[in-house]
Amino acid sequence: MDLVSIVSVLLISVVGSLTLYWLTLRLRLGKQAALRPLDGYDALRIQSGKAVEQGRGVHFSLGRGALSGEAAATSFAALSALDYLTEDGCASDAPPLITAGDGTLFVAGQDSLRGAYGDASRLEDYQPNLVHFLSAEQFPMTYAAGASEAVNRGDMGSNLMLGRFGAEIAIVTEAADRLDMEQVIGSDDPTAMAVATVASNKVLLGEELLAAGAYLERKPAQIASIQLQDIFRVIAVVGILLAALFNFVVS
Amino acid sequence: MKKYRHALPLALAIAFGLLTLLGLLFVPDLAATMTGWASFLAAVALLIGVINLLGVHARRLAGGNAYSGVLIVSMVAVFIFALTDFLGLTEDGVNTIFQLIQVPLEAAVASLLVFFLLFAGMRLLRRQLNVWSVLFMATVLLTLLGRTLLPGPLAEPFRWINRILSEIVVTAGVRGILIGVAIGIVAVSLRILTGSERPYDK
């Protein structure tokens, strides 16, 4: 790795961490921060209640992005959303059916469900079989076939898909749409985002998905990281504008 | 003791995260060792997943689901071929099965995607008829026309529109989204490295 890259990574890590710490401290001391409303998270919050009300389950798919790979951040965000849903669902006896297209996500999904039952002091009700492994990461269509089958079981009322997907998501959303299910879809992949926008009104596009913890748990550190993202975004926009201006002047 | 239950995973996660980051920057061998360990754990997780898949379908088979039976038979067949490959009784058996069955099946399902997308687009118009859905369908039609075998002079304007759409509009949009995603990934990584977010500590 060249010197410029090393300095950039260290600078972003150190300055970013310090800024994150400072922003978290401000929020803990009572400084208020507003998050713009997102339909996807509003819908996600009421899923467990809806499941109890309608007597129909919730299908939650974690996608195909391994926790040890480049999609790790996306998958961690999806797991944050799952933690929220399992906590809510296990307390009201309506745990979601979880599907995963990767081994690490499968294990993390089981851990999330077990943790939620533990928090509800109902560990004896924990059913590991509510988490299904569908396929290895490199077989998107096999994953789509498995997830569609989970959607088509007949007892599902909502289809939530958050994580790393590709175009194969169209097969699952089509199955859910045919059964008139409410769908919340979030991904960081441009193709999946395009397909999701067609399939549902409640879509979490790219960075919106990565803000799952902040929207659902609202802990100071998570909200601070959204503020940090905004700071980075302003820096990126100014940088791009300056670079474009420089190129324009030079040429 | 309860205190250590939370402190130990946190300390381990931060230590290994920082070690991997510093390894990537200064000692590539260290980073390679760490990622090697992660890959090994991912392989173990995959094995656990496969056992889960077998368990789920065994139960379904017991409930009379014939498709689950097919899955279990396939799984056992691949396992037997892997064993015979290993013992030298067959040569490249697993790969042959993969090439003859899995690859064509994946390709066949993938080829259906275009129809799924088209139906989803039609349904979008039915669900919400607004300026965005009309713009979406107009773009789909223009793109399709630009890629069909229209006669020369008739095709030219559509190809031109197609080029503008894909090289300027789509590229700009996708890059904007990806920059946002990259910034989000940095924020998530910093949260985990600083211990603000602990997905491993339920």
Describe this structure as you would to a colleague.
The complex is a heterodimer of chains A (251) and B (202). With 251 residues, chain A is an alpha/beta fold. Helices cover 60% and strands 13% of the residues of chain A. In chain A, strands 3-2-1-4-5-6 form a 6-stranded parallel sheet, sandwiched between helices. The longest helix of chain A is centred in the last third of the chain and has 31 residues, at 220-250. Chain B is mainly alpha-helical. Chain B is 86% helix and 0% strand. Chain B has helices at 2-25, 28-62, 66-87, 93-111, 113-127, 131-146, 152-193. In chain B, helix 2 packs across helix 3, helix 5 packs antiparallel against helix 6 (131-146) and helix 6 crosses helix 7. The longest helix of chain B has 42 residues, at 152-193. The two termini of chain B are 16 Å apart. The interface between A and B is large, with 80 and 61 residues.
